[in-house]
Write a structure and sequence with these properties.
Strand content: 15-25%
Number of strands: 17
Number of domains: 3
Low-confidence stretches: 1-8, 471-475
Length: 475
């Protein structure tokens, strides 16, 4: 149905653009009206939006970037220690989000760094770890994105942790992500109790090597195909990965069984993977990173290539301005809380997992995963509305990732900075919620949007990089 044709046929109708009070008044009078949720862009951004619209490079660059994103591959090829693949030396760590120093680091980020120090044997106790981190003695940390990888929640990665190795053969990129620890009191949520460290040591000593043997024996795994299937099975790739996890286990279990593990270790590994519905998230993330990475570095392109949070700042990167981070204050997710926790216990948004939304998954694909609302809050109608709204700020649809409930429409792909600011619609992200106090762990899950400041700053950067427009003759 064409809305414009529909409005011009039959009885006269009213189109209410942005004026919600006007539309409500018409509704009370039983007058037929169609409401369009539109608002003018902020006046102080108008000149920059005009300059961007006049950039002759932008249409072709955005089209090229979208094409690269849709063409990108994602194949699981190996599992390796971070020291080997990422090149981390003792005392070096990666973390989620844009760069952040200890003084501004959130509770979960500090807690995860403390836990990594204990895991690596660089401190005897949490107090000693905190002192060394605060002083910066023999330790350093940088964003996972700066090394081509991604990390969930605090995203802290240390040399002894094992990572998935995912390859995009189309564009020649390799990305990575740690193995998923499960939910609750885990390092990525800032917990560092003895059971957290013990689990990490088991993952490093047993699970990582076993998965490496299994993946090498099995051969490359087409993650893009698995992600497409999981979307048809009720997952959205961020907070619901149950189908993806079980499909991965089905792929690897025979090779895992043939890896020569003692039966007890094999059972423990299979039980750990099968009992952790989020296990596949750590493969969706590098697959999404590869898709977004494919669009990076095109002059004039206004598409977002990363959205990430460190628990203090929310940052985005844009194709046309390279590795520059544009940041704003991270918001506190609104959602459902575990046990006796409430909003006062929640830390501001954290994690690289918003790379899933950058690639059109997660909050952008909620229409295909209506059950997600029981985990993050809201209603099924909210999930459908969220996905439909994301088409307004993206430039493409991904035929590899389709949503059956929307008549197999491809997920909205390629967030455009200009469209975000012109429409006032911010990307929808669904996420876990970390406790604000270091050592707490997970306290809930919910929904959040980036701060508009990120996009306004990116607009300024893009406008500054745009070629000067045609000069008018003096009058």
């Amino acid at each position: 149905m064409n809305p414009a044709t529909d409005l011009l046929s039959g009885e006269p109708r009213v189109l209410a653009v942005g004026a919600r009070l006007f539309a409500d008044a018409l509704g009370q009078q039983a007058a037929p009206a169609t409401t369009v949720d539109w608002r003018p862009p902020p006046e102080h951004l108008t000149d920059q939006l005009v300059r961007l619209a006049a950039d002759p490079r932008r249409p072709a660059a955005n089209q090229e970037a979208a094409g690269r994103m849709l063409a990108a591959g994602a194949t699981l090829v190996d599992v390796a220690p971070a020291a080997e693949l990422v090149g981390l030396a003792p005392g070096e760590f990666c973390h989620a989000g844009p760069p952040v120093q200890w003084e501004r680091a959130s509770g979960p980020m500090r807690g995860a760094l403390v836990g990594a120090m204990l895991f690596e044997g660089l401190a005897d106790n949490p107090e000693q770890a905190q002192r060394r981190l605060a002083a910066g003695r023999g330790v350093s940390w940088a964003p996972c994105h700066s090394r081509g990888g991604v990390g969930p929640m605090a995203g802290v990665v240390s040399p002894s942790m094992w990572v998935w190795v995912v390859r995009d053969e189309v564009h020649g990129h390799t990305s990575w992500c740690t193995l998923n620890e499960g939910l609750g009191k885990v390092l990525r949520y800032g917990a560092y109790s003895p059971e957290v460290i013990e689990r990490l040591r088991w993952m490093s000593a047993v699970l990582g090597p076993a998965l490496r043997t299994a993946v090498r024996a099995h051969g490359p795994v087409d993650l893009k195909a698995l992600i497409g299937q999981m979307l048809h099975m009720g997952d959205e790739g961020h907070n619901r990965n149950r189908a993806g996890t079980l499909m991965l286990l089905r792929e690897l279990l025979p090779s895992l069984a043939e890896a020569g593990l003692p039966s007890g270790q094999l059972a423990a590994a299979a039980r750990f993977i099968g009992g952790n519905d989020h296990f596949f998230l750590n493969l969706v993330m590098p697959a999404a990173k590869l898709q977004a990475w494919a669009a990076a570095g095109l002059p004039g392109c206004t598409l977002v290539t990363a959205m990430a949070r460190n628990g203090t700042d929310f940052g985005i990167q844009v194709s046309g301005t390279g590795d520059t981070w544009y940041t704003g204050p991270a918001g506190v997710p609104r959602g459902l809380f575990l046990g006796g926790y409430g909003p006062e216990d929640a830390n501001p948004d954290i994690g690289d997992s918003a790379i899933t939304e950058t690639a059109g998954l997660g909050g952008f694909a909620m229409a295909g995963a209506p059950a997600i609302v029981r985990f993050v809050g809201g209603t099924v109608a909210d999930a459908l509305r969220a996905s439909r709204e994301m088409y307004e700020i993206t430039v493409a649809e991904n035929p590899a990732y389709t949503l059956p409930i929307l008549d197999f429409r491809g997920v909205p792909t390629g967030v455009d900075v200009a469209l975000v600011l012109r429409t006032g619609i911010l990307p929808q992200i669904n996420t876990g919620i970390a406790g604000r106090v270091a050592g707490t762990g997970q306290v809930g899950a919910g929904l959040v949007n980036p701060p508009v400041e990120c996009f306004a700053a990116a607009l300024a950067g893009l406008a500054a990089a745009a070629p000067p427009g045609p000069r008018s003759d003096p009058q």
